[in-house]
Specification:
By secondary structure, the protein is α/β, with parallel strands linked by helices. The protein has helices spanning 7-12, 17-24, 28-38, 55-69, 74-82, 87-102, 106-120, 122-143, 151-165, 192-203, 217-227, 244-251, 278-290; strands spanning 14-16, 44-45, 51-54, 180-184, 208-212, 231-235, 256-260, 273-275.
Length: 301
């Protein structure tokens, strides 16, 4: 682990390529390749031509490594970290989206979110823009005597976010590529987080079969048998919609179940994995897909 120091030292300290490569767990040749292909690397060199990395350079490279390990292509990861927004730029985006939502201007909301997705990528847009704005609406609604006053704004924002996420071109499941199936439990209507996950997986070229809200257990079982996905992400927003019966049915099928959402208890259900954020879901799915056997292989039906 590199020690950045404090104050002025943190801003001025530099590191060699070897130090950075060891800290990040990558080869020096990889750092050179990223610098040459994507211009992700040291912003300056010493007079002798030696590459020296600042603390800011190292942070950007660490972010790129994290994105790649979550399943993102190196080229997409480079575009994401190159356009990583500052806290101030995210605040301005949130202010614009909040204002458009208060006006019930669905077109403006869509344009703001869609541009953020194009420039920042889905995870940064979801975590840094969409979730904070939606949480603000929920908090305001909870504090008001008229608890229905904020519903039109919430619906406008949800529609705009969904429409923007749908602009991310999905990867169509073909052949024996590992596939992820996304579904809400049979009584769960809140599917927006699954839309974000579907779009983030599309950015990573992972084939997705999206079933959406309120999928009856019998229908989900039929879909798994018909499509043979490698993993099913089962979303529950509330405790009362987290169906153990559905999970039990999935566990009897040749598929890897993964629970997601705050509705599930913060523990594993009989060894079934759980994710509580978009980044955690991407990391877990990357690990599962990397170790998945192709459909039709001896170890898989």
């Amino acid at each position: 682990m590199l020690e950045p120091g404090d104050g002025a030292t943190a801003r001025t300290r530099v590191y060699t390529a070897g130090q950075v490569a060891r800290a990040l767990g990558v080869a020096e040749t990889t750092l050179r390749s990223w610098h040459r292909r994507y211009r992700i690397g040291p912003h300056a060199a010493t007079p002798g031509g030696y590459r020296r990395y600042s603390a800011e350079d190292v942070t950007r490279l660490q972010d790129m490594c994290d994105l790649i390990r979550s399943g993102m292509l190196a080229s997409d990861a480079a575009r994401t970290v190159s356009g990583k927004p500052s806290a101030e730029s995210l605040r301005l985006l949130r202010d614009r989206l909040t204002a458009a939502g208060r006006r019930l201007d669905s077109r403006a909301c869509l344009e703001i979110v869609a541009e953020a997705v194009r420039t920042l990528g889905v995870p940064a847009t979801w975590d840094g823009l969409c979730c904070p704005v939606l949480r603000e609406v929920e908090s305001e609604q909870a504090a008001r005597a008229d608890d229905t006053a904020c519903i039109p704004r919430e619906h406008v924002l949800s529609w705009a976010i969904t429409a923007a996420l749908h602009q991310v071109t999905p990867t169509i499941p073909v052949g024996n590529l590992p596939t992820v199936m996304l579904a809400c439990t049979d009584t769960e209507q809140h599917s927006l987080p699954l839309e974000a996950l579907a779009a983030a997986l599309a950015e990573r070229r992972v084939p997705v079969r999206m079933l959406g809200a309120a999928v009856p257990t019998a229908s989900l079982v039929d879909a798994v048998r018909a499509a043979s996905p490698h993993v099913v992400v089962l979303w529950a927003q509330r405790r009362e919609t987290a169906s153990r019966q559905t999970l039990a049915r999935l566990r009897r099928l040749p598929v890897r179940p993964l629970t997601a959402g705050p509705g599930w208890l913060p523990r594993r259900h009989g060894g079934v994995g759980h994710v509580d954020s978009l980044s955690a879901a991407l990391a877990s799915l990357a690990d599962i897909i990397e170790g998945a056997e192709p459909v039709g292989s001896p170890g898989r039906p």
